[in-house]
Amino acid sequence: MSLGEHTSESAPFFSDDSEAEGQDERGTGDGVAQQTQEESASGVSRVRALLTVFTLCYINLLNYMDRFTVAGVLPDIEQYFGIDDSKSGLLQTVFICSYMFLAPVFGYLGDRYNRKIIMSFGITFWSLVTLASSYTPKEHFWALLLTRGLVGVGEASYSTIAPTIIADLYVKGKRTNMLSIFYFAIPFGSGLGYIVGSQVGNLAQDWHWALRVTPGLGLIAVVLLLLVVKEPKRGAIEVRPEHQLHQTSWLKDLQALSKNYSFVLSTFGFTAVAFVTGSLALWAPTFLFRAAVFNGERAPCVEGNCASSDSLIFGAITCVSGVLGVASGVQVSRQLRKRTARADPLVCAAGLLLSAPFLYMAIVFAQDSTIATYVFIFLGETFLSMNWAIVADILLYVVVPTRRSTAEALQIVISHLLGDAGSPYLIGVVSDSLRKTDSFLWQFRSLQLSLLLCAFVAVVGGAFFLATALYIEQDRNRAENYVPIDDEPIVVPKSGRSTRVPVSSVLI
């Protein structure tokens, strides 16, 4: 079935603006009535919903800004603690591991309890822990590792839940647009993390101050969250009157998600994205700094504030390429959806497959031309960023509303477990093993060779998204027309008491 064949009654989770307009042919009055019904169903007014999205976007920006501040001052941290590449990679790995393992817990809670309260607690916690990490003394590198791990606890409570709130506020093309705004914050916030971290550390002549910026902004985020965001009703905006969604057990949710091939394959594709972005996020500024030292353009790091200019440039590239990538990915997908219902996974696959050669050339050309390296990094990151909003929307329209937080959490676990939880540490270990001497030549060459792994992983991820395209239509239709059956219970009066029986055993 093509997208154009969906009727207004089927309430497609993801459609472009032309489709939404086509459904209003019955008259303006019906369109206004439908819009009013959507707003009342969610329990949130149009203005409050818009303010909610912008608040969540600000917090998401802060989330990624905090996550990559450390990467912006990594050469300074290496020099301060006297650590090698493998230990440097642990800074990102311990954060991702705690973030990853706690995501299912918050996914379970987010599907069942007040999401605003859960997020408020998480943001407060991560802000306080980040502030505490800025006071780590030179003799206690383990303390920095511990606090970075605890930061992941707070961030897990937000990332698993925020997209589901947007999904409960908007449907169709509006949801696509709002998710695009939300996911603009990922590359933009990451880039700001490099920029703010390196420049604040440079101005203060102390990298510790780079970690003291986001905690204050985090407290502002909590205030905005409590005052602006209103908890919407789960799935009410897209459930048809004859269908009522019921909570099922966590094991049943996992069983259903494991049989959702679009969800599983797109998750593995996104794992490749996480592997590549995790590697580049931590190591790219350090790699660029070592390339400049190798080419004689920079002096070796001996007194701190080593990679401030490299982190600044890479942060700016990340911001611009990320915004362009997310925007172009959504627009290309929107146009391609007019021709095929498989547009979303195809665009994701194209983004990864196109990014691979540019990332390869960026790594190889670093020894010859700094300008060429920056150009290729820009192109590679632009194509890599094309899938951020699209992957999120794929999950939301192939999974029923009562399982979305669990699905978000499961995707986070898998993509981080096999992706960026180990990739920064893996790159560091491979770099250390390839280094024959401690010369500037081998510091650069070993890291260069280890980063080439990113191009290969990007190709593998593209293959997973191509496989997703084979199942996307049937899984989407199944989610849109979902009716609770099998062992999902309803209450039936019997002898004056309520008895739980399977739906399949009752004739209605």
Structure explained in plain terms:
By secondary structure, the chain is mostly helical. Helices cover 71% and strands 2% of the residues. The protein contains 22 helices and two strands. Strands 1-2 form a two-stranded antiparallel ribbon. The longest helix has 34 residues, at 261-294. The radius of gyration is 24 Å and the shape is globular. It starts with 16 loop residues before the first helix and ends in a 6-residue tail after the last strand.
Observed structural traits:
2% strand; 508 residues; disordered N terminus
Q: Can you write the helix and strand succession as a string?
A: HHHHHHHHHHHHHHHHHHHHHHEE
Number of strands: 2
Rg from Cα: 24 Å
User: What separation lies between the terminal Cα atoms?
Assistant: 30 Å
- Percentage of residues in strands: under 5%
